[in-house]
Amino acid sequence: MTTDQPGVDGADEGTADAGRSTTSQDPHAELLTDPDAPAKAIRPLHLRPSAMAWIFAGGIAGTALRYYIEKAIPHDGASWPWATFLINLSGAFLLGGLLEGLARLGEDSGWRRRVRLCAGTGFCGAFTTYSTFALEIVLLGRHGDFGTAIGYGLLSVAGGVISAWLGIVVMAGVHRKKAPA
Amino acid sequence: MIAILTFLAGASGAVTRFLLDAWTKQRWQSPFPMATVVINITGSLLLGVLAGAVLFHDQSSTWQTVLGTGFCGGYTTFSTASFETVRLIQQGRRTLALLNAGISLVVSVAACAAGLALVWAL
Question: Is B64 on the interface with A (CB under 8 A)?
């Protein structure tokens, strides 16, 4: 018995460690770690023309909406870039809610995958932008507005994370309310 | 016409991001979302070059709109970067989450500034 003991302890410790470092603390283990991950398929998802077509369609809509919002609220290079700020935060919220909602509805296949590719990878991905965000920080710095540049950068990144998390939490709440008691 | 070209360029950027993301993940599996980080850094560098061409070399801003607002905008993504940071936090990988957010921000801005400076120096 005593000779078995260390092995058992070791196994228990191993299980506990594995639990701590992986999913037991994860309150949303049902969600994908990476929204653009190619799911298991006979033909890899990224080699399917239909997957690219769905992303392309969503990408047109996302880019168009961003284009018109940026046009309506132009950035002069010296003030707070409100258009990009609002686009990025609302897009992060939408993506969080979308992926949580889809994950709660079932596995990533069929129409759920098409919606993820079109509305998630395509629309939210193209609607939000990191390059314009980075350029605005550089232009603010070039104009000498270092405070605004740093504040804009940090608030956007923190705000984006909070928005995506809020999207997940709100959608999880909606799903719980709809679920039968 | 410029608007339509911009939308098509943005959609092409989104598909490019999807393909590059899948290609990276096939070759290098890691809990750190390297693909999105690289996409955002390279897209920011390209936009810096485009903006520099307009600012310092009097190039038509049409190019910056179509390739910058369109392609770079659709290629890079803020929503996926934010979502991936949230997922890392939820998995208890706080250091990776902080690294993901920090490296994306600092290196993308530096890459964009480098692109701008490169064109200015030419």
Answer: no
The mean per-residue pLDDT over the stretch B87-111 comes to: 97
Contact between B82 and A163 using a beta-carbon 8 Å cutoff: yes
A2–chain B nearest CA distance, Å: 35
Q: Which residues of A touch B108 (CB under 8 A)?
A: 130-131, 133-134
For residues A112 and A102, the answer to whether their CB atoms sit within 8 Å is yes
Q: Which residues of B touch A133 (CB under 8 A)?
A: 78, 108
> Most B CBs within 10 Å: which of A99, A130, A140, as the mutation test of the B interface?
A130
CB–CB of B7/B65 below 8 Å?
no
Residue among B15, B21, B51 whose CB faces A56 most closely: B15
ipTM score for this prediction:
0.96
Say if B90 is an interface residue toward chain A (CB within 8 Å). Answer: yes
Spatial separation of the C-alpha atoms in residues B114 and B92, rounded to whole Å: 34
Task: Render pLDDT for B42-64 as a digit per residue (tens, 0 to 9).
Answer: 999 999 999 999 999 988 889 89
Q: Looking at this protein, which amino acid is placed at residue B57?
A: H
> How many other C-beta atoms lie within 10 A of the C-beta of residue A131?
34
Q: Which pTM value belongs to this model?
A: 0.83
Count of beta carbons in the 10 Å neighbourhood of residue A141: 16
Structure tokens at A41: 């398929």
For the segment B21-43, what is each residue's pLDDT rounded down to a tens digit? 999 988 888 999 999 999 999 99
CB neighbours (10 Å) of residue B112?
31
